[in-house]
UniProtKB/TrEMBL annotation:
Organism name: Jiella mangrovi
Protein name: Probable GTP-binding protein EngB
Keyword Nucleotide-binding: yes
InterPro entries cross-referenced by the UniProt entry: G_ENGB_dom, GTP-bd, GTP-bd_ribosome_bio_YsxC, P-loop_NTPase
Residues covered by the EngB-type G domain: 22-205
Task performed by this protein: Necessary for normal cell division and for the maintenance of normal septation.
Family: Belongs to the TRAFAC class TrmE-Era-EngA-EngB-Septin-like GTPase superfamily. EngB GTPase family.
One Pfam family from the record: MMR_HSR1
Length: 205
């Protein structure tokens, strides 16, 4: 179904608007500017699909995407649903916006049986930051399986990527809900997209 176009089906600004539990969901999370929109667009081969969702003042929503044809009830349930989560850690975000984000995201991560995995995007130039640690802590507490995805790896040299992979695995290996392997990507160069697709496929119904 990666050959098909995907469509945006729903933006969820609060938990009460979540679709009923159903097909497996995979969520993409990460700090603002980590390259999340670019990666989702590259993965699905559609340039304008995921918008940059961290613009200050914009409503923070969980954005749901499904393969085309499954956007209507009559077509049956999609085999997989991708969820673009609003970016976190935007320095200038007002406090009430941060609080709203925290509530929405944490509640979703904690209490959503349909959610099968979170791809936690980490910018290869920065590595794991304090707020990424906070999110990992929460995921561990919720026993929500997450896999690190390194982004923008074209921005650093190959040996630095190798070093970062080793360091990141070292930092996550004792974390109970962290997946034992990570995925190295560059949306710019098309690196790692097949690995990402394979990971998605293993979770699809
Ligand atoms: P988001 O805020 O996490 O959705 O991030 P975006 O996808 O909007 O990307 C943030 C910035 O990083 C943009 O200027 C992108 O062009 C750039 N970017 C995203 N992915 C890559 C990548 O793989 N390589 C490089 N060099 N730049 C990237």
């Amino acid at each position: 179904f990666f050959a098909k176009p995907w469509v945006f089906v729903r933006g969820v600004p609060a938990l009460k608007f979540l679709p009923p539990e159903g097909p497996p969901e995979i969520a993409f999370a990460g700090r603002s500017n980590v390259g999340k929109s670019s990666l989702i667009n590259a993965l699905l081969g559609q340039k304008g699909l995921a918008r940059t969702s961290n613009t200050p003042g914009r409503t923070q929503e969980l954005n749901f995407f499904v393969p085309d044809g499954y956007g209507v009830v009559e077509a049956g349930l999609p085999p997989i649903v991708l969820v673009d989560m609003p970016g976190y850690g935007y320095a200038k975000a007002p406090k009430d916006q941060v609080d709203a984000w925290t509530r929405l995201v944490f509640d979703y991560l904690r209490g959503r049986p349909s959610l099968k995995r979170v791809f936690l995007l980490i910018d290869a130039r920065h590595g794991i930051k304090a707020n990424d640690e906070e999110v990992m802590k929460l995921l561990d507490k919720a026993a929500m399986s997450y896999q690190i995805v390194l982004t923008k790896t074209d921005k650093i040299k190959a040996p630095a990527v190798d070093k970062l992979v080793v360091e990141t695995l070292e930092r996550t290996k004792k974390r109970p809900a962290a997946f034992p392997s990570l995925i190295v990507t560059s949306s710019e160069k098309g690196v790692g997209l097949d690995d990402l697709r394979e990971a998605v496929l293993t979770l699809a119904e």
